[in-house]
Amino acid sequence: MAMLPRLILLPLLLILRISWSDAVPLQQFSPDPDDSIENCGGENGAPLMTPCKSAIILDAQTSTTLKCEDDEPMSWWTSQSQYVHVKSFDNTEDPARPFGTSLHLIEVTADYVAAYYCVKTSKFSQIAKEEQSDEAMIELVNQGYASSIYVYVNDPDTKLVDSHNVVTARQYTDVVIPCKPAMPDTEVLLETSNGEMHSSKSVGRYDPQRGFTIEIRSIVDGGDYYCRPNPPFPHNEEEMTSIEKTANRCQSP
């Protein structure tokens, strides 16, 4: 029997009961095929993150720990903050980086797929909560105040990641439609409000960590956009996410 479709039409607050049992399997890291270490810090003044990878792949229902070390206190940020468990520690192994912090991911599923940022608290505290976003954290990474890692999850039940349900853009500007897969090699199909179909394998402006980038040419480009995995799991054939996009007319100065 097919599972119910995953429609994201309203913001959802998920309350997850976490098991802290010692029986939880620990995950051995699998590197992303396109992996690099450019954002793990340590050499440009940014916090040193372990594992030193731009992305990792975890198996579903396993657990792992991300660590950061620096010469000052640090904070963690991710769009999936409801799943974050953070603990500070004294880093006695490196006098140059006496401060340490760890982030525990417990029994992961596709809901945990996201970028995780380790940020110098002195800079993080300057950003208002409503202004905290992936874009703001990427800017801190570029400035050497943060390090990041992207976590994929090989989930046997779900191929797509829950995304922000409303996207707003101005006419004649680019907008990202966050159709994101749980695994980097999954093909994602985007159906636009006017019935056009696009594949992540054939369009040039697609990033599995962000989604499809499209240009808003008219206010009629607004409406509901649908994301589907290709192919879906046989037991979840109706899987899809729905994203509402609003387009505002560009006003003349």
TrEMBL record:
<dbReference type="GO" id="GO:1903688">
    <property type="term" value="P:positive regulation of border follicle cell migration"/>
</dbReference>
<dbReference type="GO" id="GO:0061327">
    <property type="term" value="P:anterior Malpighian tubule development"/>
</dbReference>
<dbReference type="GO" id="GO:0007443">
    <property type="term" value="P:Malpighian tubule morphogenesis"/>
</dbReference>
<dbReference type="GO" id="GO:0030031">
    <property type="term" value="P:cell projection assembly"/>
</dbReference>
<feature type="signal peptide">
    <location>
        <begin position="1"/>
        <end position="23"/>
    </location>
</feature>
<dbReference type="GO" id="GO:0045087">
    <property type="term" value="P:innate immune response"/>
</dbReference>
<dbReference type="GO" id="GO:0048803">
    <property type="term" value="P:imaginal disc-derived male genitalia morphogenesis"/>
</dbReference>
<dbReference type="GO" id="GO:0035167">
    <property type="term" value="P:larval lymph gland hemopoiesis"/>
</dbReference>
<dbReference type="GO" id="GO:0030097">
    <property type="term" value="P:hemopoiesis"/>
</dbReference>
<dbReference type="GO" id="GO:0035099">
    <property type="term" value="P:hemocyte migration"/>
</dbReference>
<dbReference type="GO" id="GO:0007419">
    <property type="term" value="P:ventral cord development"/>
</dbReference>
<dbReference type="GO" id="GO:0004714">
    <property type="term" value="F:transmembrane receptor protein tyrosine kinase activity"/>
</dbReference>
<feature type="region of interest" description="Disordered">
    <location>
        <begin position="231"/>
        <end position="253"/>
    </location>
</feature>
<dbReference type="InterPro" id="IPR013783">
    <property type="entry name" value="Ig-like_fold"/>
</dbReference>
<protein>
    <submittedName>
        <fullName>VEGF-receptor C</fullName>
    </submittedName>
</protein>
<dbReference type="GO" id="GO:0036335">
    <property type="term" value="P:intestinal stem cell homeostasis"/>
</dbReference>
<keyword id="KW-0732">Signal</keyword>
<dbReference type="InterPro" id="IPR042495">
    <property type="entry name" value="PDGFRL"/>
</dbReference>
<feature type="compositionally biased region" description="Polar residues">
    <location>
        <begin position="243"/>
        <end position="253"/>
    </location>
</feature>
